[in-house]
Amino acid sequence: MTKKYMPEPFKIKSVEPLRILPREEREKVIKEAGYNTFLTKSRDTYIDLLTDSGTNAMSDRQWAGLMVGDEAYAGSENFYHLEETVRDIFGFKYVVPTHQGRGAENLISRILIKPGTYVPGNMYFTTTRTHQEMNGGTFVDVIIDEAHEPDRADVDFKGNVDLDKYEALIKKVGADKIPYITVGVTVNLAGGQPVSMQNLKDVHALSKKYGIRVIFDATRCVENAYFIKTREKGYENKTIKEIVREMFSYADGCTMSGKKDGIVNMGGFLAMNEEELYDAARSLVVVFEGMPSYGGMSGRDMEALAIGFQEAMDFNYIKHRVQQVEYLGEKLMEKGIPIVKPIGGHAVFLDARAFLPHIPQSQYPAQALAAAIFVDSGVRTMERGNVSAGRDKDGNEYFPKLELVRLTIPRRVYTYAHMDYVAESVINTYEHREDVKGLKWTYEPPVLRFFTGRFEPIE
């Protein structure tokens, strides 16, 4: 029996026309962009799966909220609405708004990380690790081993922290050298994989034993809550809001990019319960973001974010959001396309090493695959492999076990028909995979090279 997927729990009020370039023009576009999809133009893209960060469709209530933006330089009413909403949903006492998640990462890293310290986490994220390293810290991956195995479909919570790895690090370097552990919920670079509630409890308990803070990367916490509700025993009858609130009771603070599960185009925050940490963040936010009552956001942005968080607590919303991702993943698996399993919450991740076995990782198969998909169909995707991993302090490439291409689904933007088109393109590219060539650098930036680096095919 064919699985039934939930139809869109919304109706379309406004549309944005799309265009698709002829193949010859797409070939020209990707060449001029240095075979980097980040350097292609939006107007040249047919279906944009580059990211779900800030690319969401806001609701009528959110658009209405823009009209009550209080753009006061200090004490904006919209800040107090956002603060009240964050306290209600996440349970933290103090809230510092930022322009987006990396603004919050910058603040927490500058305040807590000192040279010679170590920051464990359940797999790195690009900007998070960069902020940690720029402040003298060393990131240490303490995720479970199964997270690095794309074919392991039998593990429901591949984002879990390996408690033995975590405690071994504590004993090796000393708890005083670990300012906090960062726990992503979900884990982006593992394939959008969730963390179980039990693991969050256990991480919190172990951290408290050694006096270490727990800081969540809350970016896709609503998706994580959905997986807890549908996969973890004892939570099937809990609301999404109840699950989110319990999740964050096991953290001392969080960084948040509201551009994902906040369903907005811009915004984020840093939240915590420690007054001393809050005072430091309020002082520092003025230097890098703006006043403590807007922190890089306009009043209307803060209002839309507060409303977006409230809407994200609706189970029908998040069920459709995750099932649309699942729909695309299932269509690809039916045709034998190698993807990360189980299917994650915000994206389908293609296993580029299995997709393009003739291209060694030193020739960036994920980068080459993202470029090939764009040429095939005008669908823009993102590399999440060796290029994103970058280089260590000695200049050596990391060569991560996961060499992936991320097909990221924006919230409330595309229909199942769009997913059908994407699937057809990926399948067609797979059928002609021998035509895809490896790449070499023509320009490699020193930091976050995947954003602006340029390549050319190896003939």
UniProtKB/TrEMBL annotation:
One GO MF term attached to the UniProt entry: tyrosine phenol-lyase activity
Coiled-coil ranges per UniProt: none
Reactions it catalyzes: L-tyrosine + H2O = phenol + pyruvate + NH4(+)
Keywords carried by this UniProt record: Lyase, Pyridoxal phosphate
Cofactor: pyridoxal 5'-phosphate
GO biological process: tyrosine metabolic process
Record-annotated Aromatic amino acid beta-eliminating lyase/threonine aldolase domain positions: 48-424
E.C. number: 4.1.99.2
KW Phosphoprotein (keyword) present: no
Entry keyword Signal: no
Modification N6-(pyridoxal phosphate)lysine occurs at: 260
Entry-linked HAMAP family: Tyr_phenol_lyase
Record-stated family: Belongs to the beta-eliminating lyase family.
Quaternary structure annotation from Swiss-Prot or TrEMBL: Homotetramer.
Protein name: Tyrosine phenol-lyase
